[in-house]
Design goal:
The protein has eleven helices and two strands, in the order ββααααααααααα. With 200 residues, it is mainly alpha-helical. The protein has a two-stranded antiparallel sheet with strand order 1-2.
Length: 200
């Protein structure tokens, strides 16, 4: 079986010619991302892809990015609503097969939501904000200890270190008390706000 039933009851094709029939909605993307945990669930609290995506979009806004770039930053992991969030070590273990599968889903969504060109032209910037988000998440939501744990090449390579955000704290009591529906609604609201700003 190469299809799935989404939260809206729609059939979503995962590969092959059927992908041309896919018609993903903002609602089902926000719904799924708000319930999919980052780090395969190995955080000190539930931390969803939706919350991560909002953080990346926040970082883009703080950097002075235009609304369309902020929108692309928000949607950079939207395909995970259908592929799931697979941790980087697992992706590296699976290798090229995973890359090809994930890329096809991501490219399809970028086309459908009209962000393909901005994802391409701002790939490096969005990647950097994504890495800053990762460093912030590691600092605030994991039990990583630099004194005893091996460095993460993706963040800790000498000369290319990525530092955590100094303006975001993810381990606050306020964040810990929010439920998945908050992040679903926040993701949806941010998307709609940015889309209107892009149209203006």
């Amino acid at each position: 079986m190469t299809w799935m039933i989404t939260a809206t009851g729609r059939t979503h094709h995962l590969q092959g010619a059927g992908m041309a029939l896919n018609d993903p909605t903002l609602h089902e993307i926000a719904h799924a991302l708000s319930q999919i945990n980052r780090f395969t669930g190995h955080c000190t609290r539930p931390y969803s892809v939706a919350e991560h995506s909002l953080l990346v979009s926040d970082l883009a806004e703080r950097a002075g990015a235009t609304p369309i770039v902020q929108l692309a930053a928000l949607m950079h992991d939207a395909h995970e609503a259908y592929t799931g969030d697979v941790s980087s070590p697992v992706k590296w273990a699976v290798g090229q097969a995973w890359d090809a599968f994930e890329h096809a889903q991501a490219a399809s969504l970028h086309n459908i939501f009209g962000i393909r060109s901005v994802m391409t032209s701002h790939r490096a910037q969005i990647r950097q904000w994504d890495l800053v988000a990762l460093a912030t998440e590691r600092r605030d939501l994991t039990l990583f200890d630099p004194a005893t744990d091996a460095p993460w090449a993706i963040l800790d390579t000498p000369g290319h270190e990525v530092l955590a955000s100094t303006t975001h704290t993810l381990c606050s009591h306020a964040r810990e008390t929010l439920i998945w529906k908050h992040w679903r609604n926040a993701f949806t609201g941010r998307f709609l706000l940015l889309r209107e700003a892009v149209k203006a």
